Amino acid sequence: MKYGKPLIAAALGAASLFSATVMAENHVVSASLTSFDPMVIKIQPGDTVSWDTMSGHLVNTKFVTKDGATDYIPEGAEGFMSQMGENYQTQPLTVEGVYLYKCDPHWGAGMGGAIIVGEATNLQSYVDAKPKGALKRLVKKVQQATAE
Ligand SMILES: [Cu+2]
Fold it and tell me: Which UniProt keywords are given for this protein, alphabetically ordered (predicted)?
């Protein structure tokens, strides 16, 4: 059994690589009129999210108000913005926490959504910021989803 150990190690290495690959999932959110369905989704770190039926819509993690621009994403994560009408897919979302996004043309009608990657570790900071209007309703939806 001279070659036994290296072979087993190689087999285990290949197996873990394989399982990491097959376990990463893509989750689809559909745009319709002025809402995203589902509005809040829970995924695992490393998964991706894509949007379909995006004609007339876009997704953007940057929220601009008179006080400036804010990204409601976990610290160290990267925000994203799609082109108008694009059935966009994110890069693997590896940083745990809550990502908020919205459709700019329809944000006035409350067209926003949230992605919870792993645990909602940064949710309290969004609550503490005392959001208003559509943002407040979106944060409330995330709180409800995490309470389930
Ligand atoms: Cu829209």
Answer: Copper, Electron transport, Metal-binding, Transport
Residue 109 Cα to ligand 1 middle (Å):
9
Give residue for tokens 């929220």.
Answer: 63
Range of the domain at 117: 25-147
CATH number of the domain bearing residue 65: 2.60.40.420
User: Is the pLDDT assigned to residue 127 strictly greater than 90?
Assistant: yes
Determine the number of helices (DSSP H) and then strands (DSSP E) in the chain. 3, 8
Closest CA to 144 of 40, 49, 44: 40
Q: Tell how far the Cα of 63 is from the centroid of ligand 1, in angstroms.
A: 14
Note the pLDDT tens digit of each residue in 70-80.
999 999 999 99
Residue 58 Cα, ligand 1 centroid: separation in angstroms? 6
| Global pTM value | 0.85
User: What's the CA-to-centroid distance between 139 and ligand 1, angstroms?
Assistant: 18
CA of 112 to the centre of ligand 1 (A): 8
Q: How many domains does the chain contain in total?
A: 1
